[in-house]
Automatic annotation (TrEMBL):
Region (Disordered): 1-28
Pfam families: Amidohydro_1 (PF01979)
GO molecular function, one term: hydrolase activity, acting on carbon-nitrogen (but not peptide) bonds
Organism listed in the record: Lachnellula hyalina
Protein's name according to its UniProt entry: Amidohydrolase-related domain-containing protein
Gene3D superfamilies per record: Metal-dependent hydrolases, Urease, subunit C, domain 1
Amidohydrolase-related domain mapped to chain residues: 113-457
InterPro entries (alphabetical): Amidohydro-rel, Metal-dep_hydrolase_composite, Metal_Hydrolase, Metallo-dep_Hydrolase, OTAase-like
Length: 495
């Protein structure tokens, strides 16, 4: 079946050219995020992370509290008991607590204490290199690689990640369960299965679950749900780098999309979709795909439809992939001229336009960046927050709220995750700097001085951050990301 291809002129969204002063008011996306409403039947399993002693006490003294409610940061203390934050602002009996040898006291000296970050488009199983070879990577090494990425997220200050596809069908599930059991370090995680594509619409063959037509698609979803996934991934549109499947092509039909949503929701699972093409975005909205990735080529009609249903959808643009492919891929043999020629500049321009308009209309946009490709390496996740500020008209506060309270909402646990408030789980980071003045500070691992997850200290002090290996590094010493020089050219073409 030929895909439906569109190459519309970029839409105006009914706007005259807007050149206003940068917005400086209160965060506009608080209401947007509060208003998101997923049906209660789609609530993910209530995972717990084991291993926190119920009597453990941590006192953060003299910190600048950035609580993700929209309030400006304010000075105070924060007390954590067991897994939860129990006091914020004024901690009673502080002097007594400080003398108690069982209380771990961390002197903030005015540093920023904020919620751990969240990512709405995570691939633990991507190797920072050749995705085509992931299908052939032995399962033993692939487990190591996946655990390594999970650790890299928590090392980078991320405490919530929403899985956006797993290269092997059970990897995400197994790693999620190991994190929750306290066996390996990693963020709270909602696991995905393999991405599902039509046989004429795949992006990377070795990591795809194939299905054509509504019945086979329902079958794949039932299979993944049986394996224990939390989310279902549909790969609906193309991707320019494949050179065979355009980002403006939509491969799914209405019947297929409707069947996937019906089956997924019936089984209590939400769906997310790789949807760059106009028609793929429209189908997601029409049939209720909960999380829409990219959405680059949304048109006027799609924008209006999305606005009307903005409490039902979350957009995660993963815009760093477009930026990285244009600006950072040259070193890997994919020149900027090539990226421009196949359409990445055009797509980036379209995406920025659409996303700004979504933000203006109060449509929820969350960071989450498709990290784990060669030129979007693991550990650089917080670039997304900078892009939101520099390209999408978010204030730094809005960007942080999206990455914290926003991803907590995506987890459907906004009453206990993503904020520095009493009764919330103690997932927090102590930042040496003010991210409201300089959002890029969150990308600097040396400035993430303390990282706490579930009331347990993951990192304290200025422990050196060790970046995960990349393909071919150290003369191929790392077994989990070997280089494949003989296919290098092919790799550059296909991711
Ligand atoms: Zn992705």
């Amino acid at each position: 079946m030929a895909p439906s291809r569109t190459a519309d002129p970029l839409p105006s969204f009914g706007q005259k050219s807007v050149t206003s002063e940068p917005y400086k008011g209160p965060p506009r996306n608080i209401k947007t995020i509060n208003d998101i409403h997923f049906d209660a039947s789609l609530q993910p399993t209530n995972y717990k992370i084991l291993g926190t002693h119920p009597d453990s006490k941590i006192l953060f003294e003299d910190v600048s509290i950035l609580d993700s409610t929209g309030r400006d940061p304010y000075p105070g203390d924060v007390l954590i008991e067991g897994e939860k934050i129990v006091r914020v602002g004024n901690v009673p009996d502080k002097e007594k607590l400080k003398k108690d040898p069982k209380v771990r006291v961390i002197h903030g000296r005015g540093r920023t204490l904020m919620s751990g970050l969240g990512d709405a488009h995570t691939h633990f199983t991507w190797n920072g290199g050749d995705l085509n070879r992931l299908g052939d990577l032995g399962v033993e090494k692939h487990v190591l690689l996946t655990a390594r990425s999970a650790q890299c997220y928590i090392d980078s200050g991320y405490t919530m990640c929403f899985g956006a596809a797993s290269a092997k069908e059970r990897l995400d599930v197994v790693i999620r369960d190991a994190i929750n059991a306290g066996d390996i370090p990693g963020p709270r995680y909602l696991a995905n299965g393999k991405e599902m594509a039509r046989r004429d619409g795949d992006l990377v063959a070795g990591i795809t679950a194939y299905a054509d037509g509504p019945e086979e698609m329902r079958e794949v979803i039932r299979h993944h749900v049986k394996l224990g996934v939390d989310n279902i991934k549909l790969s609906m549109s193309g991707e320019e780098i494949t050179e065979t499947r355009s980002a403006q092509d939509c491969y799914f039909t209405d019947e297929e999309t409707a069947a996937c949503v019906d089956e997924g929701h019936k089984l209590g699972k939400r769906l997310c979709a790789h949807a760059r093409a106009r028609d793929s975005v429209t189908m997601c909205i029409k049939h209720g795909v909960d999380v829409i990735y990219h959405a680059s080529y949304i048109n006027d009609e799609g924008m209006d439809m999305l606005e009307a249903k903005k409490t039902k959808h979350v957009i995660a643009p993963a815009i760093n992939w477009l930026i990285g492919t244009l600006n950072d891929a040259e070193a890997f043999g994919y020149p900027k001229a090539k990226a421009e020629q196949v359409g990445y500049q055009r797509e980036l321009d379209a995406a920025i336009r659409g996303l700004r308009e979504m933000h203006r209309r109060g449509i929820p946009i969350l960071p989450g960046g498709d990290y784990g490709f060669a030129w979007t390496p693991h550990g650089t996740y917080a670039r997304d927050l900078e892009h939101f500020v520099k390209l999408l008209d978010f204030t730094p506060m809005e960007s942080i709220i999206a990455a914290t309270a926003g991803v907590a909402k995506l987890f459907m646990r906004e009453q206990e995750l993503g904020k520095i408030q009493e009764g919330f789980y103690a997932d927090c980071i102590l930042v040496d700097g003010d991210p409201l003045q300089d959002i890029t500070v969150l990308q600097d691992h040396d400035k993430l001085n303390v990282i706490v997850l579930n009331g347990r200290v993951h990192k304290a002090g200025r422990k050196e951050y060790i970046a995960p290996p990349v393909a071919g590094q150290d003369a191929n010493y790392h077994p989990i990301v070997p280089d494949f020089p003989e296919v290098k050219k092919e790799m550059q073409k296909n991711y």
